[in-house]
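Key idea: predict the complex, not the pieces.
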Amino acid sequence: MSGNNEGIIVVLSSPSGAGKTTLVKEISRKKNYQISISHTTRKPRSIEKDGKDYYFVSDSEFKNLIDQDRFLEYAKVFQHYYGSSKDVVLKKLESGQNVIFDIDWQGTEQIKKQKLNYRILTIFILPPSRDELYKRLLNRDRNDEKIVKERMAQFNEDVLHWKDYDFAVINDDLENCYKKIIKFIESEDNENDPNYQKYFSSLIKKNICNMFKIIGVLKFNII
Ligand code: ADP
Ligand code: 5GP
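Result:
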């Protein structure tokens, strides 16, 4: 457990396109959370800015950073490397700032395994349906069918990791989803309050039922 003046870690993961980057930005804009800006070897999207959305680096630059032990975690996702800067994140946490991550399940596992001396809350975001996910990816990735297909193909596998997270929520309406996440995060600050605990255990169960519906339906819904 962290002391009172140390930050906490919040991690959001999801199948690609479910909306975690949008949610992480919203949480950071409205609440006291600093985004961990990752390094990646992927090429920037047209609206992405170096140093704001990611640090865009070459394969050799990324490998050098691995050799210098500069990552808290890193993973290969969709043929590219992604990693979170160790120094930057730890300095923020030590100075009492909360840090929020938008990383995949492999990175989440790595951070959990390190048993850092900070409280960590992990949240899994789901799309309302596979059709909606497809539309969101198509819209974001500028109708690049190859990228969209690659990411849709990964959905059935990625979605199974929800069960390793503390909380899971469907991103249907953005504002609603945001509010559920904030309520969950803030309830953790009140962990001795039985009403909060009851509320969240019922919400999680409801979400899990919804997820099973989604997985069941989506498996047979081939786009
Ligand atoms: P991820 O980070 O999970 O891959 P993004 O945050 O990039 O997903 O969202 C994918 C696309 O879906 C973006 O174009 C984003 O604006 C849009 N989006 C996110 N949440 C919603 C929502 N609740 N309703 C409609 N569109 C959304
Ligand atoms: P995108 O290319 O859509 O920005 O991200 C693809 C995937 O990589 C997403 O699941 C995203 O959460 C994940 N990702 C982004 N940054 C990191 C990181 O630093 N570490 C890990 N492990 N995954 C990341």
